[in-house]
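Lab notes, practical 5.
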Amino acid sequence: MLDLAMFAAEAAGAVAEHAEEPTALFLTPGGWVAASMLFVFGIMLYAKVPAIIAAALDKQIAGIKEQIDAAERLRIEAESLKGEYEKKIKNASKEAAVLKAAAEEEAKLIVAKAKEDATALIARRTKSAEQKIEAAERAAIADVRAKAAEMATAAATQLIAANHDAQVDKALVDTTIARLN
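Output from the prediction step:
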């Protein structure tokens, strides 16, 4: 197997040594490639392709510069806005502190008013309860007096009925009529 590989390598080398390169108009294929490249470059120079490419690159450079300038303006504007919002945040925290203090003061006033209202309500209800108690006492006294008057009337009726008869009544009526005249 090794002999076969050596034989193939020797045969390839022998073929490579005896091969002649083809030529056309005294130029090898590499020469024709070089000549065609020079021709293409010549046409490109004649058509001013480098100037066109340079103009396109200059246009792209100008566009990139505009984008950079716009980005710089946006950055400056963003920094300005950031500064404004930082000031607003500081002011907002100050305003929040002021509002908090005002709310605490208002809460104290509301608590004080609620205490006053509760005290006034307690006083009104106490007064109302006292008035109801006094009214109940007056009603009880009036009821006791009425009952006492009823009982006195009933007792007087019984006493009069027991101690007076028609003859005594006639004498009382006559005496009373005489006093009226």
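Observations recorded by the TA: The mean pLDDT is 85. The CA atoms of residues 7 and 22 lie 27 Å apart.
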